[in-house]
Amino acid sequence: MDESLYYKRTIVKETISSAELGEDRSLRIYLPPGYNELLSYPVIYCQDGEDFFNFGRIATTMNRLIYDENIEPAIIVGVDVDKSVRTSEYAPEGSRFAAYCRFFARELVPYLEHHYPVRADLNERMIAGDSLGATVSLHLALDYPSLFCKVISLSGAFFQSTRDRIAQEDDLSRLHVSMVIGLDETEVHTDRGSFDFVEANRITKQLLEARSCLVNYEEKPGKHIWGFWQNELPWMLKQFLK
C-alpha cells in the first residue's frame, strides 16, 4: 500500500447555527476515500472535534483501516468546542450542558442527516469523546436512546453525577460502550481538582455491566493525553465498524 494514501483526506468545514446554544458552531466532516453521495455511510460524531482530527489523527486512522483492514468507510463529524466553556458544556453539572445536549440531538444530528448521506439507523451512528467529552457522549446515549447506542470513551471523566445517572437505569442491554483508561491516570489534574480516573472508570464499568451493557474495557499504561488515546482509536473504531 502506498502510504501517501493514508494522508490524502477530504475534510469539509461547516458552520451550523444553533438556536439551543444561541451561536454558530464549527464542524469538521471527514469524507472517506471513494465518497459518493449516492451511497450511504455509518457516522461517527466526535466531541472536541479539532483535537480528534489534529491530535487524535482520526482521519488518517480511518484511511488506514479502510485501505489495510477493509473496514467499511464511515463519515466522521468533529464538533469543535471553545475550550473556555468546554467544562460548562461537557460536565453534567455545567451551565451549558443541557443546551449542548439538545443542540447535539435536536440540531446537529438532523442537520447531518439532511446534508450528508449518513445512515439514520441507530446501530450505524457512533459517538466518541475523551475525558469530559466521553462523559457528555455517554449522557447523550443515556438520554437519547433512539439516537445513540454505541459510545467510544477515551479516559472518560465519569464522576458521581454520571454514576448517579447510570444508576437510574434498570436495563442498558441496548448500549455498547468501548472504554480505555491509562494506568497512569490515578491523579489527573483538572480545572475542578485532581481525580483518580482509573478508579472512576472501574466503577463506571461495573455499573454499566450490572445493567447488561456490553462493555469492551481496556486498562493499559498511558497518561491522560492524546499521545495515549491516538494509539487506542484503531481497535475502538473496529469494535463498531464492519
What pattern of helices and strands is seen along the backbone? EEEHHEHHEHEHEEEHEH
The CATH architecture assignment turns out to be 3-Layer(aba) Sandwich
Overall radius of gyration: 17 Å
Class by alpha and beta content: alpha/beta
Strand order of the largest sheet: 1-2-4-3-5-6-7-10
User: Portion of residues in helices?
Assistant: 25-40%
How many discrete domains? 1
- Sketch the major β-sheet: 8 strands, mixed
Tally of contiguous helical segments: 8
- Annotated CATH topology: Rossmann fold
Task: Count the beta strands.
Answer: 10
CATH H-level homologous superfamily name: Alpha/Beta hydrolase fold, catalytic domain
Segments where pLDDT lies below 50 for 5+ residues?
none
Q: Determine the strand fraction and express it as a percent band.
A: 15-25%
CATH C-level category:
Alpha Beta
Instruction: Give average pLDDT, whole number.
Output: 96
**N- to C-terminal separation?**
21 Å
| Structural shape | globular
InterPro entries: AB_hydrolase_fold, Esterase-like, Mycobacterial_A85_antigen
Protein name: Enterochelin esterase
Organism: Paenibacillus naphthalenovorans
